[in-house]
Amino acid sequence: MNVALKTPVLSGPRTVKRTLKAYISLTKPRVVELLLVVTAPTMLLAERGIPSLWLILATLVGGALSAGSAGAFNCYLDRDIDRLMKRTKNRPLVTGELSDREALIFAWALGAASILWLGLLTNWLAAALSFGAILLYVVFYTIILKRRTPQNIVWGGVAGCMPVLIGWAAVTGDLSWPPVILFMIIFLWTPPHYWPLSMKYRADYQAAGVPMLAVVRGRAQVGLQVILYAWATVACSLLLIPIADMGLLYTFVALVTGGWFIYETHRLYSLAIRHEHVSPMRVFHGSIAYLTLLFVAVGIDPLLPF
């Protein structure tokens, strides 16, 4: 979609505080925070205990730089449609807090720093996975998929799964089946997490010409897809029990929070097919709580004697 890019006019003086806040906003800090939430517990599981605190810190910093780079590239590449959507109207390239050139330099700098940081302070497998995560999000999702297919978030979500591989590789220097299962949990979780958000902002995506599933399908169809992916997510989370020899805590949390997550998706679908008022953000926020609790259990379970 070709949209003429008008140079935004910055309101008020550009202070150091405003500029710093704008650069932080480019990194999509809420996304970075969620990615780090899954990285640290994965490292505890890989160690079957508590790894070196320096290694944890180094991996989290490297992961934050990597995710921040991907987010900044995304803001740069999507600056045309961000100007058309109410949800993204306050991003720094829309408001004029930062120039396109500043954002692009910042994105490249963060990406290079993340690879060097992880390579020198953890290992080069983790660094290579970080590089792969940036490429997946920027090229595979943002450039290729996002504006072309309603399945964009399904396959584009692969980039968001990479932090568990990076965390595992930082501890062990290799990959095995447990991180693959963790990867698949996040992969299957991404659609029922993001599609409810696209339901709420359907008009935004439609105006920007982005074919999110909620734009090209009705609420009932979106609700059904959310249910199917939620069931698949919970089923995959249970696979971790035998494969990673998880204990009672993880088993309990996976069953209880998984059941609650599935219930919320069924509730969304039930309201949608009855053409009643739906609250898709309830599922969106609930999905974040579900994944957070699940990964907290992933990290604590190996520390317990049962």
UniProtKB/TrEMBL annotation:
Protein name: Protoheme IX farnesyltransferase
Organism encoding this protein: Cryobacterium levicorallinum
CDD domains: PT_UbiA_Cox10
Similarity annotation: Belongs to the UbiA prenyltransferase family. Protoheme IX farnesyltransferase subfamily.
Further details from the record: Carbon 2 of the heme B porphyrin ring is defined according to the Fischer nomenclature.
GO cellular component: plasma membrane
HAMAP family: CyoE_CtaB
Enzyme Commission designation: 2.5.1.141
